[in-house]
Amino acid sequence: MKKIVRWHGVIAFIVIVGVLAVFWLCFVDNIVKRVIERNGTAAVGAKVEIADLDVSIVPAGISMVDLRVADPDRPMTNIVEIGRLSVSIDSGNLLRRKLVIDDMVADGVMFGTARKTSGAIAENHKKAAAEKQNRNKGKKQGPSFELPSFTLPSPEEILKKEELESVIRAKKLKEDIQTEQKRWKERLATLPDKKKFEQYKARLEKIKSKARGLSGMLGAAEDASSVYRDIKADIETIKKARADFNRTINDFKARIAKLSKLPEQDVKRLTDKYANPSGAVSNISRVVFGEKINRWIETFRTWYHRLSPYLAKVPGPVEPGRKVKLKPARGEGVDVRFREANPMPDFIVRRAEANVILDLGTVEGQAKNITLEQNIIGSPATVEFKGSRLKKAGSVYMKVVANYIVPQSPVYTMDLSVRKYSVSDMDLSANGKFPLHLASAVADLAANGRMDNSGLNLSGLLKLNNVRMSLDADRTVSPIMEGIGSALAGIDSLDVTATVVGPPDNVRIDVASNLDSIFRQAVSKALAKQAAQLEEKLRAAVFERADMEIGGVKSSLDSMGGIDKDLLNRSRLGESLLR
Amino acid sequence: MVKIIAKFLKVLSSETDPGQISLGFCFAMVAGFTPFFSLHNLFVLLLVLLLRINLASFILGLGLFSGIAYILDPLFHTIGLAALSSATLEPLWVVLYNMVLFRLEHFNNSIVMGSLLVSAVLFIPLYLASNWLIQKYRDTVLEWVRKLKIVQALKASRLFQVYQTLSG
Hints:
The structure holds 2 protein chains of 2 kinds.
Chain A: H1 8-44, E1 48-56, E2 61-70, E3 77-89, H2 91-95, E4 99-114, H3 122-137, H4 155-161, H5 165-190, H6 194-210, H7 213-259, H8 262-274, H9 284-311, E5 323-324, E6 336-337, E7 347-358, E8 361-370, H10 374-377, E9 381-388, E10 395-403, E11 411-427, E12 436-452, E13 455-471, H11 479-489, E14 494-502, E15 508-513, H12 515-558, H13 561-578
Parallel strand pairs in A: 4-7
Antiparallel strand pairs in A: 1-2, 2-3, 3-4, 5-6, 7-8, 8-9, 9-10, 10-11, 11-12, 12-13, 13-14, 14-15
Helix pairs in contact in A: 5-7, 5-12, 6-7, 6-13, 7-12, 7-13, 8-12, 11-12
Chain B: H1 2-13, H2 18-33, H3 39-50, H4 55-85, H5 90-97, H6 100-105, H7 110-147, H8 149-155, H9 158-167
């Protein structure tokens, strides 16, 4: 035994292990700090820094002071800054290679804080910029919000692009009259005419000459009766044709009467369209609030693309046996997973609390079940923030639920409610032509949204009370600006509703508010004089065109008068034979 | 490194039991083939220090087998994955998977499992082969090597001087 065992080796072993343990204990804080900073920086694409970190063995946990995560798109700004972050880890599960954070407490969480030094990482910054450019290539740009033009067009410009109903109808009527005239000329040729009646006269003369003697008189009477019937029938045919003709003429006259009213209708229609800009300002809310909503959607889109790679790693349903990671990195192999007696995700934050310092005051937040493996725990991740009696708001409540228990059908829902938020000095519209400024207001906001495989569906209602709004533009530029400026000064409350629907990269934004009707009235009032002038000029121009066409119609109808005279003459000629 | 080689050459040529040198090689193979920071390597280190195993051969072998392991990684992965995916062995793996000690050991990793299996299978053959080679070296080759001109030249070199210094 003595020959085999080297007892002093045990001492060497203890010394080696002891030295390693002491080394680990001395440097573990720094090692963990470096690991978090390095991995965090790689994941975010900008500097992740920790001022101080302390690892505790019993109970297992980490506490960090001043954690700063730089914004890769704005390197002089932090996405988030956390004053103090304490994490308590389940040591039993840590031995099973699972990072189960039982409790996480974050104090002094702030967003968008300024940095003293740049948080950009040269290599990653370029990569991120290239990725962003690539993303934007395939993505539809957000809608641009343009202020409508309030200049009224001239009557010539209007008539150049507009068809007049009166002219169209007059042309059609003229064509109809000409067609009818042609048809009547053809019909006249088929009706008994002067020549036919002279033939009847000749036949009657012949009958008279034959009427000698009793038998001759009897035969002549029979022949005369036959001629009489023929003449009578022809006269009836002519009379019937004349009645038809008069009906046609009366019909045309009625159409002409209607036609003469159309120019006024044209004037009204075109005046409504061009002299009343209510249509153009019907969605001024979109102009005013659209830009802001679009910027929020852009921010959402940026985060959606940033988080997508991680959410794409959401594992599929657990197979009853095991699952295997494919495509191993060289030298790393793959971890084969087997059934666990007490299944637990590889990473989970069971409960997290935070107090977040916002512009409107400090709100308390709570998060539960933050993990990518929701299918194991069977519960969705929830994040909830609430605060009341804040510096600038009565209350704030937000709840986000991310449910990918069934990874193929993820559902994200959001509810937001802000009550009595004191808004001050806010630029509502950055549009240079229309710089709308909200000096002060008390806002109530309620919004909810849902995102699933079918896309995004957000809706919100913003109620602004005690509104003091101004248009920071030169009002002397136009009477419209003057009118709008006055109208805005009179606004006391404002209701804005917005909906955002569609796939994240191509959403449709609809915004409406009572600002629309206020603007319509203000613009209509300001434009009333110009509108009246346009209407007069438009009337003159429309009537000039229409009268010319209607005049042509009337003369066409007059030329049909000869047909009636012809029919009357034929009828009289027949009747003279019967006397 | 020069000292280690010199020490190894000395041991190889001394009366040291070939088994001790061979065991050094065999344990070096286990530690070298498998990922260095594995739980079982702590046990290997304990055995190497506790048992009368030649440390020079262990250290030399560790460098050698670590290099070879880098080339053999794909083979270890294939073997390990096959073993871990075996339906027959699955009940065993499930039991081990639910034990903290084995989760720390990271046995469910394809490379850990593959390299452990390969080194376990090769342990005894390598031990026997090393023993035989050392014996052969001492009986025949050593004398012949000593007479070689290159060895004569080496004896005049710094390496030999170090060797002599160490041998006292």
